[in-house]
């Protein structure tokens, strides 16, 4: 790629972020996702930090201002009404101001705040310090509400909490969810995007049944822990939380809050211990587990490689996982597919059942780099760069053809371009 092309793409990425800015928060993309989403916002702050650090901090501060008294940070914040989205605030029925959904999303915020804090342009500890206490309450909520028995594994109560909505991992645990009370509803996602790229109706009925369950128990954490029909240890969620606890502990130390640093460290150790229960010797990797029924995901997904992002993977496991990643990559043109490309359930363009996502690539690449696999990490980065440069700033990409899918002008794809995938000066051709 030459310097002119890089400049044009950098500029386009900045335009996408500023165009999706709704005043203090950024929507993932217009039309399809018209509100503030939890992990999208955190990841988007990385892109803003490359040209407007103040705006990056604001993104996170706006997000954290919607934290519940319980500590939970909701997955959507409905700052303004928009009829074009379903399920909206009435379906969630959370009865809060601002109106929010009732579930959470992967806690990448602490990791991103650490990045903003160590940014060369950052003014001082105050903005980070103000967030550390809130992050501690959110992470403690995960421990209390989602791991009440202290096993070291946190549960998700809805596939949407994983951020990887229709991954085949959820098929078996979802099959136990009773949809008889769901009734008629009208989806909005399939009005914006082709139905063959979106989750199928049977899945959507179960998603709505779980929203109905949460609403019926008033989003009470104890009732959810006791009775929610979906209670699954997602490998991705657990990996991301583990990493976030380490980063929170580091941050709390750096801003002079040692009690929080110690608490985060203790939680991180418990999670590290719990994570090993996700190892599957037959599959040679970490997989999600249904904690209600002792079932396990039968296949690896891109989430399995988030074990590297979580921390150090023990050498024997790491070698086997990297070898398997190499096998996956031989079956596709672009890495990393969200699901095993050799599996009959692989679907190259349907959402999380095959496509490549720039943000997951960043996390996997970051983890591989930290675990000493620089070359693999660079391969993933260069594939991400090619996909965006050749196709555009799509929500996700087909790993076989590179075709873009889902929403266009997508904030987190623009952010990943600016903060990670764009070529460095020494990587530019003439
Ligand atoms: C979809 C994705 C989720 C993301 C949201 C907004 O629901 O699965 O991860 O946060 O869109 O981009």
* Share of helical residues: 40-55%
- Low-confidence segments, ≥5 residues, pLDDT <50? none
How many individual β-strands? 10
Which structural class best describes the helix and strand composition? Answer: mainly alpha
Offer a few descriptive terms:
17 helices, three-stranded antiparallel beta sheet, binds alpha-D-glucopyranose, mainly alpha, 430 residues
Write a structural description.
With 430 residues, the chain is mainly alpha-helical. The chain is built from 17 helices and ten strands. The strands form four sheets. Strands 1-2-3 form a three-stranded antiparallel sheet. It has a three-stranded antiparallel sheet with strand order 4-7-8. A hairpin with a 6-residue loop joins strand 9 and strand 10. The longest helix has 21 residues. The radius of gyration is 20 Å and the shape is globular. The termini are close together. The relative contact order is 0.13. The model has no long low-confidence stretch (mean pLDDT 96). Bound molecules: alpha-D-glucopyranose. The site of alpha-D-glucopyranose has 7 residues, from helix 2.
């Amino acid at each position: 790629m030459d310097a002119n092309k890089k400049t044009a793409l950098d500029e386009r990425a900045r335009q996408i972020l500023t165009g999706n800015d709704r005043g203090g928060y950024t929507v993932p993309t217009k039309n399809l996702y018209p509100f503030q989403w939890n992990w999208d916002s955190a990841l988007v702050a990385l892109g803003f930090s490359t040209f407007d650090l103040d705006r990056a901090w604001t993104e996170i501060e706006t997000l954290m201002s919607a934290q519940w008294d319980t500590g939970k940070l909701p997955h959507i914040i409905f700052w303004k009404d928009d009829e074009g989205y379903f399920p909206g605030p009435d379906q969630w029925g959370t009865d809060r101001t601002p109106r929010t959904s009732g579930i959470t999303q992967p806690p990448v915020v602490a990791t991103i705040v650490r990045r903003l804090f160590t940014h060369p342009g950052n003014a001082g500890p105050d903005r980070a310090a103000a967030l550390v206490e809130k992050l501690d309450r959110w992470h403690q909520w995960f421990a209390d509400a989602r791991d009440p028995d202290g096993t070291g594994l946190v549960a998700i109560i809805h596939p949407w909490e994983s951020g990887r909505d229709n991954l085949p991992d959820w098929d078996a645990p979802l099959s136990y969810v009773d949809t008889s009370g769901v009734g008629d509803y009208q989806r909005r996602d399939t009005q914006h995007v082709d139905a063959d790229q979106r989750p199928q109706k049977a899945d959507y009925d179960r998603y709505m049944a779980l929203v109905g369950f949460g609403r019926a128990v008033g989003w009470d954490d104890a009732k959810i822990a006791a009775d929610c029909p979906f209670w699954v240890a997602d490998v991705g969620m657990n990996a991301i939380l583990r990493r976030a606890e380490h980063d929170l502990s580091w941050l709390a130390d750096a801003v002079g809050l040692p009690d929080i640093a110690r608490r985060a460290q203790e939680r991180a150790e418990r999670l590290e211990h719990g994570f090993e229960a996700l190892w599957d010797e037959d599959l040679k990797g970490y997989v999600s587990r249904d904690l209600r029924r002792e079932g396990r995901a039968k296949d690896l997904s891109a989430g399995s490689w988030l074990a590297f992002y979580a921390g150090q993977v023990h050498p024997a496991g790491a070698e086997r996982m990297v070898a398997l990643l190499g096998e996956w990559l031989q079956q596709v043109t672009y890495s990393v597919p969200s699901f095993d490309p050799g599996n009959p359930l692989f679907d190259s363009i349907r959402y999380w059942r095959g496509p490549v996502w720039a943000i997951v690539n960043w996390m996997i690449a970051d983890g591989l780099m930290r675990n000493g696999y620089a070359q693999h990490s660079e391969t993933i980065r260069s594939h991400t760069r090619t996909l965006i440069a050749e196709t555009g700033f799509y929500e996700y990409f087909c790993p076989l053809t590179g075709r873009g899918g889902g929403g266009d002008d997508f904030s987190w794809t623009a952010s990943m371009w600016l903060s990670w995938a764009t070529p460095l000066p020494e990587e530019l051709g003439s």
